[in-house]
Write a structure and sequence with these properties.
tt1808, chain A, DNA binding, 34 helices, Rossmann fold, 7-stranded parallel sheet, alpha/beta, globular, 840 residues
Length: 840
Amino acid sequence: MSKEANARIKINKLLENSGWRFFDDEKGSANIILENNIKITEKLLDDLGEDFEKTTNGYIDYLLLDHQGFPFIVLEAKKESVNPLFAKEQARKYANAQNCRFVILTNGNQHYLWDLKRGNPNLISRFPTPDTIEGYSEFQPDTKDLINEKVEDDFVAKTQNPDFDKDPRWRDSQTKQEFIFNSGLRFLRHYQLRAIHRIQEEVKAGKDRFLFEMATGTGKTLTASAVIKLFLKTRNASRVLFLVDRIELEQQAEKDFKDYLKNDFSVCIYKDNRDDWRKSEVVISTVQSLLSKNKYKRLFSPTDFNLVISDEAHRSINGNSRLVFEHFVGYKLGLTATPKDYLKKIDSEALNAKDPRELERRMLLDTYSTFGCEDGKPTFQYSLVDGVKDGFLINPIVVDARTEITTQLLSDKGYNVVALNDEGEQTDTTYTQKDFEKNFFSKYTNTIFCKTFLENALLDPITGEIGKTIIFAVRQNHASKIVQLLNEMAMQMYPDKYNSDFAVQVTSAITDAQKYTVNFKNNNLNGSGNFSPFYKTSKTRVCVTVGMMTTGYDCPDILNVVLMRPIYSPTDFIQIKGRGTRKHNFTKELKDEQQKKLVLNPDKKAFKLFDFFAVCEYFEMKFNYDEILELPAVSSAEGGGESPPVVAEKNHEYILPDPLKTMRENQIGADGMRIDRMYFERFEDVVKEDKEIQKMVQNRDLDAIEKYIVDNVFEKPNEYYNLPKLRDAAKVDRRLSLREIIEKMFGYIPYFKSKDELLEEEFDKFDSAYLPEDAYFEFAKNYFKSYITDAQFRDIIENKNFALLNTNANGDTFKRLSPELRTLIPEYIKDNVSINQFMT
């Protein structure tokens, strides 16, 4: 049988399975016409192009009719070996000639549904039924409405209820804002606004897939709420699907969306509303719920949702999860703090020639490609660095603690054990950090871990007890040991207070573990307010987990994150560290107003990251960020986040005491780590010892020294010194010049000035020359600095796109200046300041 005939048999079966009819029957008249003859007019022939068969008639492979018998969908079929997208343009012309809005492109194995009013063909897993596609046809989106919708900071807070603004309670705007805040509604921050505007820009450019890369704690759910409202309000979506990969995230999203959108749209969790989910505009589901028994294919049409949002997007496109995500047509938005870049450093042509399947799998798993960001840049990005700089997030205090044993396990040589085998012969076995609690066991090491944590943990500012903590263990048996040790120690520290509830294991082996995570967040795990009846905080202070409570777990009052296991994945490390980066005011849970006034430090200004396996050092100094990612192993089952059991050839139980060898707390500053400084010092030694340079120093010929270093020192074997590496080693928050480095080495300048010091110095020069009026002084300084450091702001000023100042963080500075200074400052900077030195 030919491949073309084989494809036709498959297509016929797929059409019948979806309710389309080749013949009249009891269900209705036939609604499929085969090889429909279409008169090819001169205009249509011109449209189809010279490569199309030049006959007076053309033939549509399958023409699908609506319930009234009018042409509805053009289906173009290709043989199995041909990409169905090859028929795209031909099918479009046929559809336009028949006044059809929809096109199906298929080769029997791969299918695309194309709504000609909406954008690009979408991959589908089955054909739509006549009823669902006709229902979808009533949906009439207009992207112009979406693009032109005015989105400001109160976009989510502003209800569509026309009576809301007429409420007599709104005597003034302050009262209204207080009500909005107390009701759970929120105002969008400047970066969240920018994210929404980026979607409008991308839709205008014809895009229908978007990726938001936003650090943990920066409000991805609030941003998603604004996106949902934008699409629903402008009728560019009639229903939205929000996909998560864990039950606790499903419940968390429902709560947040109901808070943000309850006045405008209905929200439900699918599994709680299986019979009437269609009544809701926003449907939330775990990927696993829809995968179970292939519900996504059996119970849902590809057209049921016009916008699909994937939380933790780097996970939702892996394995079977991707089938759910791609089943639905429409706009796609991915949210993640840690996108996976499987195409980085890959020679696509070479890999395709070697193994096309591996290249295809890399493209499928690559977060950027999946969401239409083939250049490796997300639609919108807001990092932890941005969040800390803007004052929305906090960095950790790293507590690097190592015992005698872990110090050896972490060393290049590892920990060597000499023992006798069954034959009485002496054998040597070397263990590394990867073996800890897998085939190298030490009760005393675990004891020191727990003791060190308890003695140095940040305390709850209201009660003085151990602050809420998440501990990450090696595997489930290790988690059990840690929980037992902590509860024994807590009994000694706080007699009769916790009764074995101080620490709880939260892993997949524990019944109701998912519920524990929710209760811990809501401050009622095993009770609350154990130390004060006026303060609601979880009686359980520590959750010990392995792979749960990592991605998307929102618990802002976490004060300690503890790594009692090594971590080798940067994605895992970023997610785990992110559990502590959110800010929090602890008096929020204090019911007594008088006591609130007595709390000296109510705000969370730091959290501690306890690192017992040099994880921070590894990612700071040893991890190769340019390494090509390995593809994950293909598995028939989706993992549950826990480490698989490890069967070791040899196990060793260490039974001697293991004292703490080193412990240091370090809030990493501008000077960086010692290894960075050593690199700079080695370069300094090489330069100072060079005889030719010594002669130039005597003549104070800095130009000659600079040229000599470039020609004779940079990029030579052994060290391969170069300017980018030296800049990185110097740990200065701006781009140093080689001249500055030379001046520092030979004592012409005492130190490298920071970006802000240099900005102050440059502004002082301007101030001395022009002396702006006192009323404008601070605004002039802010404008001066912003013009230099904010490329977007500078571009707005240069191109006179002043309307964009409304969405720029520095826009207010411009508005408050006199017209003369608005012009004078940029002209002065262009003539007198090198902007390049302020870049990072």
